[in-house]
Write a structure and sequence with these properties.
The protein is of the alpha/beta class and 296 residues long. The chain has eleven helices and eight strands. It has an eight-stranded mixed sheet with strand order 3-2-4-1-5-6-7-8, with helices on both faces. The longest helix has 18 residues. The protein starts with a helix and ends in a 7-residue tail after the last helix. The relative contact order is 0.16. The C terminus is likely disordered.
C-alpha cells in the first residue's frame, strides 16, 4: 500500500534527533515522491535549511508544523479558490488530455451546479473522440442538464458557438464546454482552442469566463507536463485535480498551484457522481497530514 504524504515525512525523519543534511535529503526525497515537483520541493528545502540554520534545533512536531505552514503558503497565491459566478451565463471551457476524466468531471460539475439550483447547458465540442459525445449525453441526462451537440467530426468551434447561444436564449446560469484532449500536435491544439475561445466571445461578449484544466493526480510528473502544454496553448485560469484519494499524491496539488500560479477549484476523490468537491485550501493542508479527512 502506498504511503501517504504524512507517512513519507515521518519515515524521512525516523530516528533523527535533529535536522541534519541526511534528514534534509530524506525530506526532499519524500516531497518529490509525493509529486510536489522538483522546483517546489527545492523551494521548501531551501527555506527549511535557512530555518534550521537560524534555530539550530527543531523537534519533530516543530518540523511538521513548519511543513504545514510552508504548504499553506505555497497554496496561497492571492487568488480565491472558490468559483465566483458574477454573471449568467457563466461560460467554462474545460480542457485536458484524454484519459484524465475530463468528460466525467464535466458531468460531475453539472450535477454539482444543478444541486445548487442552477440551470446548466453542456457543449459536446469534443467531436473527434468516438465516445465523447455519447458519454457527455449520458452525463447530461444523469445531472439533469441540457446538452448541445452535433455529429461526429463537426467543427468544435461551431458546437461551442451554438452552445453559448443556446445558453443565452435559455437564460442558463452555467455553460460547460467539453473539448478534445489531443497533445500530439501542439500547434493544432493551440489553433483549435484559440478558435473556440474566439467564437465563445462572439456568441457572448467576454466568454469564456473560465478555462479549467483537468489533471489526473495519479499521473505524477506527467500532470506538470500536461499543464505546461495547455498553458502554452491557452490561458488557463484554474485547475481540477482528479483521482486524489489522499494516499500519496497530495503533493501534486501544491506543486501545480505553486508553479502555474492558478487556483485549484475542485478535487475528485472517487468515481461516483458526487465525488467532486470544491477545493478548500485549509482543509486540504490538514488532510495531507491526516488523509482520511480528504474523503469527509
Amino acid at each position: 500500500m502506498a504511503l501517504n504524504f504524512f507517512q513519507k515525512i515521518t519515515r524521512a525523519v525516523a530516528g533523527k534527533s535533529r535536522v541534519d543534511d541526511e534528514t534534509l535529503d530524506n525530506i526532499e526525497e519524500a516531497l518529490v515522491e509525493s509529486d510536489m515537483g522538483v522546483d517546489t520541493t527545492l523551494k521548501v528545502i531551501d527555506r527549511l535549511e535557512a530555518r534550521v540554520a537560524r534555530d539550530k534545533m527543531m523537534s519533530f512536531d516543530e518540523l511538521v508544523g513548519y511543513l504545514r505552514e510552508e504548504t499553506a503558503k505555497l497554496l496561497d497565491i492571492g487568488v480565491d479558490d472558490g468559483l465566483v459566478m458574477e454573471r449568467k451565463p457563466f461560460v467554462i471551457l474545460v480542457v485536458g488530455v484524454n484519459g484524465v476524466g475530463k468528460t466525467t468531471t464535466i458531468g460531475k460539475l453539472a450535477n454539482l451546479f444543478r444541486r445548487q439550483g442552477k440551470k446548466v447547458v453542456l457543449g459536446a465540442a469534443d467531436t473527434f473522440r468516438a465516445a465523447a459525445v455519447d458519454q457527455l449525453d449520458i452525463w447530461a441526462e444523469r445531472a439533469g442538464a441540457d446538452i448541445v451537440k452535433q455529429k461526429m467530426g463537426s467543427d468544435p468551434a461551431s458546437v461551442a458557438f451554438d452552445t453559448v447561444k443556446s445558453a443565452v436564449a435559455k437564460d442558463a446560469d452555467v455553460v460547460l464546454i467539453d473539448t478534445a484532449g489531443r497533445l500530439h500536435n501542439r500547434i493544432d491544439l493551440m489553433n483549435e482552442l484559440s478558435k473556440i475561445r474566439n467564437v465563445c466571445g462572439k456568441a457572448f461578449a467576454g466568454a469564456p469566463d473560465e478555462v479549467m484544466l483537468v489533471l489526473d493526480a495519479s499521473t505524477g510528473q506527467n500532470a506538470y507536463q500536461q499543464a505546461k502544454e495547455f498553458a502554452r496553448a491557452t490561458s488557463i485560469t484554474s485547475l481540477v485535480v482528479t483521482k486524489l484519494d489522499g494516499t500519496a499524491r497530495g503533493g501534486v496539488v501544491v506543486g501545480l498551484t505553486d508553479q502555474f500560479r492558478v487556483p485549484v477549484r475542485f478535487i475528485g476523490t472517487g468515481e461516483g457522481i458526487d465525488d467532486l468537491k470544491p477545493f478548500d485550501r485549509d482543509a486540504f493542508v490538514a488532510s495531507l497530514f491526516n488523509p482520511e479527512d480528504l474523503k469527509k
